[in-house]
Amino acid sequence: MTRDTMHLRNPFRMNDWDNRTFFWTFQAIQFVFLAVVCLDLIGYYVPIAREALAFLYLTFLPGVLVLKALRLHDLGTIETVLYSAGLSLVIVMLTGLTANVVYPLLGYTRPFSFPILLLTLVAVVQVLLYLALTRDKGRTGESPRLAVPSSPAVPFLILLPFLAIIGTYMRNNYHMVTLLFLLLVLIAVIGLAVGFDRFIPKSCYPLGIYAIALSLLYHTSLISEYVWGYDIHHELHLANGVLISGLWDMAIPYNTNGMLSVVALVPIYSLICDLDPVWIFKIVYPLLFALVPLGLYRAVEKQTDARIGFFSIFFFFSFFTFYTEMISLARQQIAELFLALTVLVMIDKTMDRGKQAFLMIAFAFAMIVSHYGLSYIYLFSLVPAWLLLAVPERLQSRLPERLARGAALLRHDPLAPAGTGGRTTPVRTLILPYIVIFAVLVYLWYSTVAEGTALATVTGIGDKIWNTLFMDSFNPTTAQGMHILTSQSTTPLHGLAKIVHVATQALIAVGLLATLARRERWRIEPEYLAVSLVFLLINVAGIVVPFFASSLNTSRLYHITLIFLAPFAIIGGIALYERLTGWIRAVRVAPFMGTAYQALSVFFVVFFLFNSGLLYQVMDDNPTSMALDTAGDKPVFNSREVQGAVWLFSEGNERPVYVDGTRWWLLLGFNPGSQRYVPANASLLEPNSYLYFGTYNLVRESIRIETQDQAVTTATYTDADRFIRSRHRIYDNAGSAVYYR
Fold it and tell me: What percentage of the chain reaches a pLDDT higher than 90?
């Protein structure tokens, strides 16, 4: 043990262990897992043991075996953990897909049942173990050691997720948000500490990234004892449908029904971990999604340095979509993990090309079967990004040397790797065959499952954009991003927040220009830079192109682009700071100016305080936080509202059910085909129909009425009494009510 670290056998790099140690350790883990499952089945429940062991078994062990079979060694702790998790999820989803197709042909009508799934997964793991040991034959040597920083920051960072868990428990049961306030303040302090280079050493940055990300996710996902948000209710409905029937019906015509991240991954985790799907969404998926910032941090750190990497990811997960909207989009959480892994593989120029191609295609397939929206955006960005890389190379290689020397544009390729001056053809990982394979997989999957609805959806969006592109560009009613920019802020504080958001986009633009101008300093890989330039154009399109941003939601679109663009906000901030301080020092004496990182830490902590809603809550200024504000009308539902929905659909009748704009999402998880939005005119309610009220409707005697104007949705609240005057209350549990006429 040294003064700074203590060294242990590294369990996160099991694929680097010698074969003998690896085999016996692996089998011991598997034996303990199966023993705990058997004890649970006969009535001896060991608290948390089955859930934890099943999570580790599903999330890491298959991927470790694939890495060993590929003979991918010495990747480092972070890359090994990330690739193991990604490959494990690929194996689990493919296992579910194969079981769903093959077992019914063999006479097993319920492939998604615990006994058959457990046996299948164990069999798959044993096959992978055999392949790993035979293909990596002769692996000897001392097992790698885990360097654990002895800094006091380690226990402090580890405690953050537990603070989020306890804080949400206090909020749910006692309506106390003090601990959640403290959590957000501590995260802000960590941002300042890194900027001022205090308390948090660079060796703790990866732990800090994962701990903060998980804390932010848990501080919202764990509010209430039921899923909350929007699309996640439909995802829950589909996952429950698979568990109830024991079979995934591939023909149900919903886009989400074609996503294995919902219809295969959730049921498998639920059955093997013995957890209700609600808790898979609330506990397990955040554990997986928190790997996204870790993967992006590693990708940025490898191209720049640790502090730029930290602040890039601090910016990325400070944006509210990461821990609000994404909580209710489980399929996109998994897809973003595969995109982050794709980025990490793409920038690695040292990996064997065959193994690199295998990983990129595996993660591409997994992204496609996880979320259609993200896959389409990434696919449509690949072609122009490839052209940005390929065209200058082709021109330089084919034009006569004298002409090439005379063309100023061709003497310097801003996308060439740093240090080459644009004169050599680099080894590229973004190549045309990869794009073609990606496109073919997209077409085959989306045109086959769920009756091709995912393919029809993007075609419909494309037609709508094309038909209005030249007439309604920059129109706030059709371009959602333009509406956000031009709409009046509700208060001066919210107006200031909008300015801060616009400033981050300006920093991104400056950072991209600085990177292009000084390639020798900002050593961003060409593939990463090319996709980033396309993503910047996607951001612009979200503001000016009709119906483009609204197909996803403007905030979700910006969140997706930050996967690539976040580092350029930091680079832009550093470039601006250096130019500004240089000018100040030139005109007057300025002995103390601080550093760029100190200024950036202050700016992005302010950005975080706005996005988390902490400032609005403290100032009581139209609070926005899902976790801190317990009084507003938000898609967060209590147990009585859920009980009312269960009662409403328990008889299985198909009568129309009217519900307001917020409670609509709750009922989406029960029977999507029967619900209707409450109309503004109460006389338009159909006879022989139900009207569902939630707690907010009953307490405030108010209904949320939503109206759609092109791409913009507006909401108003109206008196609930006029909707129930001629109706009979047939159910009431003091938290929800059902009326009938």
Answer: 68
